[in-house]
């Protein structure tokens, strides 16, 4: 196999959580370290691809040899992804917050003394994977999503594949007892229209390398 099997390819990756501000000091977020998405970006660069990584707030360093764009919110992540297109493949590994508050407070919300909490009206965020998966001519040839589930892993991943227009879903069980969240290891299954591939437990860097290997094979002449 070629040392740089993805030379000449542009791979677009999202990673990390998004933060959706409630007011200047508070936000809504998903739990996500960004470790898996950042590892995929590094592996894609090592395979010779030009890599754009759109990252939410993480404590990780920007991977070497990767163009990293830092964003905070889902809306900003979608805008950055759209600006980064066209791409040969899009790998959407970010844990995007499903909702943001309808009206972000310009001042810190104070307890009003009534003992009643403030009502936060939420609105749904754009689905970045679904947007990219359902693009017309600008759709990347290969669109890969993730499905972190705590139950009905395969059924949920298959539903996501169809609903979001993805080619592959990397499904993982993130039940608390698995230690996947924030940890270094992952057990994933690759769900596509061709079926389900079970991968053994491995660290996130190895998941990234194998995923990039599979993508390179997909693009191989
Ligand atoms: O629906 P769910 O959030 O479980 O789907 C996970 C997949 O969809 C991941 O690939 C994630 O990056 C992507 N996603 C997204 N934008 C959203 C929600 C999820 O890109 N608003």
The main pleated sheet reads as: 8 strands, mixed
Our measurement of the CA-to-CA distance between the termini, rounded to an integer number of angstroms, reads 12 Å
- Please work out how many helical segments DSSP would assign: 5
Strand order in space, largest sheet: 5-4-1-6-9-10-12-13
- Helical residue percent band: 25-40%
In terms of per-residue confidence, which ranges show pLDDT below 50 for 5 or more consecutive residues?
none
Query: How many β-strand runs?
Result: 14
Query: Could you state the order of secondary-structure elements as H and E?
Result: EEEHEEHEEEHEHEEEEEH
What does this structure look like?
With 221 residues, this protein is of the alpha/beta class. The protein is 26% helix and 28% strand. It has 5 helices and 14 strands. The protein has helices at 35-46, 74-84, 128-133, 153-164, 204-219; strands spanning 10-15, 19-23, 26-29, 50-55, 67-70, 89-92, 99-101, 122-124, 142-149, 168-173, 185-186, 188-192, 195-198, 202-203. The strands form 4 sheets. It has an 8-stranded mixed beta sheet with strand order 5-4-1-6-9-10-12-13, with helices on both faces. α1 packs across α5. The longest helix is centred in the C-terminal third of the chain and has 16 residues, at 204-219. It is globular, with a radius of gyration of 18 Å. The termini are close together. Cytidine-5'-monophosphate is lined by residues 14, 74, 92-94, 96, 98, 125, 127-129, 145-147, 160. It catalyses: N-[(R)-4-phosphopantothenoyl]-L-cysteine + H(+) = (R)-4'-phosphopantetheine + CO2; (R)-4'-phosphopantothenate + L-cysteine + CTP = N-[(R)-4-phosphopantothenoyl]-L-cysteine + CMP + diphosphate + H(+). One of its GO terms (molecular function) is FMN binding. It comes from Polymorphum gilvum (strain LMG 25793 / CGMCC 1.9160 / SL003B-26A1).
């Amino acid at each position: 196999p070629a040392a740089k099997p993805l030379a000449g390819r542009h791979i677009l990756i999202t990673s990390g959580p998004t933060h959706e501000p409630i007011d200047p000091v508070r936000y809504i977020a998903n739990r996500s370290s960004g470790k898996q998405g950042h590892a995929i970006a590094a592996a894609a660069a090592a395979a010779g691809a030009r890599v754009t990584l759109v990252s939410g707030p993480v404590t990780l360093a920007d991977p070497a040899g990767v163009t990293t764009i830092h964003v905070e919110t889902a809306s900003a992540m979608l805008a950055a992804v759209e600006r980064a297109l066209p791409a040969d493949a899009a790998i959407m590994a970010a844990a995007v917050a499903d909702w943001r508050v309808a009206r972000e407070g310009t001042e810190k919300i104070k307890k009003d003394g009534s003992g009643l909490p403030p009502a936060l009206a939420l609105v749904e965020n754009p689905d970045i994977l679904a947007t990219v998966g359902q693009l017309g001519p600008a759709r990347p040839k290969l669109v890969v999503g993730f499905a972190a589930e705590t139950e009905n892993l395969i059924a949920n991943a298959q539903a996501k594949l169809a609903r979001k227009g993805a080619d592959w879903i990397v499904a993982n069980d993130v039940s608390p007892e698995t230690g996947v969240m924030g940890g270094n290891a992952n057990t994933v299954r690759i769900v596509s229209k061709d079926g389900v591939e079970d991968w053994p437990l491995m660290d996130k860097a190895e998941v990234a390398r194998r995923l990039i290997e599979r993508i390179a094979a997909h693009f191989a002449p």
